[in-house]
Write a structure and sequence with these properties.
The protein has ten helices and eight strands. It has 322 residues and is of the alpha/beta class. Strands 3-2-1-4-7-6-8-5 form an eight-stranded mixed sheet, with helices on both faces. Helix 1 links the parallel strand 1 and strand 2. The longest helix has 38 residues. The N and C termini lie far apart (78 Å).
Length: 322
Amino acid sequence: MKKTIDVIIPVYNAEKFIERTLQSVVSQTHLPEKIIVVDDGSTDETVNIIENFKRNSLAPIDLYKQDNRGPNATRNEGLRHSDSEFVAFLDADDIWREDKLQKQLEVFEKNEFEKLGLVYTAYDLIDEDDEKIKKSFLIFKLDPGLRGDVFDKMFDAMKITGSCSGVLIKRACFEKTGFFDETLKGAEDWDMWIRISQYFEIDYVDEILVHVRLHKSNSHNNQMMMAENMIMFLKKWSGILDENHVGRIQLAKKSFDYFFKALFLFKFKTALKMLQLFDEMLSEKEKEIIFAQTKGSAFLFMVFSLPEYFVKQMKRIIGCQS
């Protein structure tokens, strides 16, 4: 019996990319049962392009519209309209290789894990013209150890690669974990994969099946927004994890990356928020560990950033006087 898949595409002002994204879905060797597109209040031609594409689509497209509520609420709305055995998410600017769904289903069908709930895949990066971006340092490589029961390994980085566009998930997972956390404006996918790994096993396809698009409007280009959301993310999971769980230290170390980014960008209010959160959330022992492992970064900040800052201020003052 054919495995049924619903593809959920949250979309907002994606007129430039949405047709190419939809084409990559209807070109799949394993066609989905339906494509659920949820428009999050687009103000451009996105909806008209989708309506035109629907007329000749090889897979049924259900289009739903809502006021702008953000990607989490949009994905959740798609989940409410989903009833297939599997769910795949696809961001409205990304593209799939034609055998993406088929390759992931093969892992589900031939896997040794009894509680397999999520299969992800490797990815690469493309630009606005679908050209490959040859900057390998931007790509998070697959972790060969991230298979099976991986809950304790999920906190030091977002290791489920390819963004939301890279996963195929049994719909039963959401019945256990609930939907995406709409209070999080960033790291919401990381949060969901952690929650799934609490109850289900995870595996991957070691092939590039997803092309993730980088362009100026990508949310991950806003480093300060990501830093502020890491505060919320850390606060949430530090309150859930047992005080002896290794994930607490891993999350704090990851959050310190954003703390130093805030310093480098001279966003001192954001950096101060993060320090206050660390003080509230971490034990004295955890603080000692974090400081010991990050004091080198503080030194580098002082050496490289502050002189540059003073040079900029001097140029500004001289410019005002000339």
